[in-house]
Specification:
Blueprint: E1 5-10, H1 12-29, E2 35-41, H2 45-52, E3 59-69, E4 77-82, E5 92-100, H3 104-115, E6 120-128, E7 141-145, E8 150-152, E9 168-172
Parallel strand pairs: 2-3, 2-5, 5-6, 6-7
Antiparallel strand pairs: 1-9, 3-4, 8-9
Bound molecules: guanosine-5'-monophosphate and magnesium ion.
């Protein structure tokens, strides 16, 4: 059985504070206008839910979902598996993503939204893994910067587990097998920072 130890990186209190500040910045920057907020499923659903409740400008919310396929990192291609339902043309769009790693997903989304005729495309990410960037991508609003590690909680998963954790945690692979499991067959262990009974 896989055993993962989770360490809290950012507590729910710190996240709440950061989200409130980000929403304040966004509201100020788009004052007098309105936003089409595009949440990237599934990871960003918790972030979107918290962020919009602190916005003081009119906002419409839509979601998009992407899948990557291909054998190697280099050959990986992205494709939309759940498209937007609201019109994008002429809108000020804010993409809300859970985490930016290589930057490929965010870049693909920016290009796609511009091609669909968005007036402007801005980006808001909860976690920026800046050091791992492979393609250059502009990020307008950043929650937290992390250097390394696999992050879970607050909507982010590891093989579909851990999305429910209220804190952002890092998966400590020490003592785990070499390969991350591909399916969520692992134990529902109690994560650090999760104070609810499982
Ligand atoms: P990118 O295209 O920037 O390399 O990858 C971005 C996507 O990879 C994110 O939207 C996220 O779904 C996934 N990802 C990258 N790093 C992590 C991580 O540390 N934790 C989780 N849960 N997902 C990650
Ligand atoms: Mg994502």
């Amino acid at each position: 059985m896989e055993q993962f130890i989770l360490q809290t990186l950012f507590s729910r209190e710190r996240i709440a504070e950061r989200v409130r500040l980000l929403a304040g910045e966004i509201s100020k920057d788009f004052q007098g206008g309105s936003l089409l907020l595009v949440g990237v499923l599934k990871g960003a659903f918790v972030f979107v839910a918290d962020l919009i409740r602190h916005l003081s400008i009119p906002v419409e919310v839509d979601f998009i979902r992407l899948a990557s396929y291909g054998d190697t990192m280099e050959s990986q291609e992205l494709r939309i598996t759940k498209d937007l339902e609201l019109p994008v043309r002429g809108r000020d769009v804010l993409v809300v993503e859970d985490i930016v790693d290589t930057g490929k997903t965010l870049r693909y989304l920016q290009d796609t939204l511009k091609r669909k005729g968005a007036r402007t495309v801005s980006t808001c990410v909860l976690v920026d893994k800046r050091q791992r960037r492979q393609v250059e991508v502009a990020i307008d609003y950043v929650g937290f910067v992390v250097q390394e590690g696999f992050i879970v909680g607050y909507g982010l998963d590891y093989a579909e587990s851990y999305r429910h954790l209220p804190d952002l945690c890092v998966v400590d692979r020490k003592g785990a097998s070499e390969e991350f499991p591909r399916r969520s067959s692992g134990p529902r262990e109690k994560g650090v920072g999760d104070d609810r009974p499982m």
